[in-house]
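Work Package 3 (structural annotation) set out to generate three-dimensional models for the target panel prioritized at the project kickoff. During this period the team completed the workflow that converts sequence records into discrete structure tokens, so that structures can be stored uniformly alongside our sequence database. As a representative example, we reproduce one entry of 465 residues exactly as it appears in the project archive.
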Amino acid sequence: MTRRIAAIVASLLIVVSAPAAAQDTVPTDLTEINLTFAPLVKAAGPAVVNIYTRTTVKERRVSPFFDDPFFQQFFGDQFKSVPPRERVQSSLGSGVIVREDGLIVTNHHVIAGADQITVVLNDKREFEATVLSTEERFDLALLRIETGGVKLPVLALRDSDDLEVGDLVLAIGNPFGVGQTVTSGIVSGVARTNTGIGDFGYFIQTDAAINPGNSGGALIATDGRLVGIPTAIFSKSGGSVGIGFAIPSNMVAAVILAEANGGKLVRPWVGAAGEAVTADIARSLGLARPGGVVVQQLYPDGPAENAGVLPGDIILGVNKRPVEDPEGLRFRLATLPVGQTATLNVLRRGTPLDLTVELIAPPEEPANETVLDGRQPLSGALVIDLSPAVSEEVNIGAWDGVAIAKIKRGSIADRIGFEPGDIIVKLNDREIDSVATLTALLPQISAPWSVTINRGGRVRTFDLD
């Protein structure tokens, strides 16, 4: 019976296979027909864990309307003394064991704000976990569990730059808390930027089903090694529609290396900023295609300037790894260690150049930050003096001046339309060079107001009565 089934399947395949040359690949027995990922999952699955968190949140016992002056006329302050009620909020996610002594990588958003983190292994053993480090910008976190010296199964990391569109991948995680689940698909895209996921975006895209609870789990290649950490999906319903994003393993490796060296990950800074080479820019420069970063600004005596980079140069790659836009350049640099050098692959007036640049930590300067209040257009904005280090931290391209780092929701600044990242250039035609200048000037000015900002390289003025 078995041979008969195999013969039938083989004959059907021969019928639908038009070219004679292709018939050499037709399966001849059930071993070839029953191809399976099971051995791969058996090897990788034990290194993928479930993560459960508990967070205590405080809830008001009375309506927020009692804070309104209108209601206080009738009820006074009697409800203000009612203490808030505490409630325990639970959530779930996944993680990957990357070192046999109990080092686990997951997403920052999986464990953010948690009071208690429980890790459940594939064999149902449970451990309380502690947070070793967390990188909100990259949405990665490292946890530690104490196993009493027992070695745990691990997933080895693979160079994520080796991935190509069309490669087969498996996603392993704990979607919706149903237990460890495996889905398969292909790499739909690499080096995805401008996805709107966080302030640092450079992702592997896959159609392997990723759902809530998969975050922090494993995306593995067919060699069983880790190539990414699933972190987000594009969905209008909340479920998988075949567009998922994973943080490349090269970024994970950089975070692990930083922890092993006893410190927080420091993104190398080269002191060069620019914009993506769009189709219009490529056409104006006579380039064959868009891609790369055209340098617009160099920090005086910074690494890029000292390496010989000039304004107008186009950075096409780092260490022969392609760069398509500023986000790609930031990713390439972030995966490299401070204290070493890198090669910038540059195009200058049609001539390719390789320039060696020193990788240093961004220069630190005292950060002066202030929350503005009062009846003025910027009320509710947290403003900060920029420096290379501050700019890297808040992901703003400029290295000096005054920028809006945060805005309180519903504040005057929010309602007017100011945004985090806006650089305040002028206030009523007065140049703003520091937070001290801004805070000293605000009490001296009354309506009408005129606020000039730089938003992503575009200057805009708000004229307000």
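Confidence is low (pLDDT under 50) at residues 1-23.
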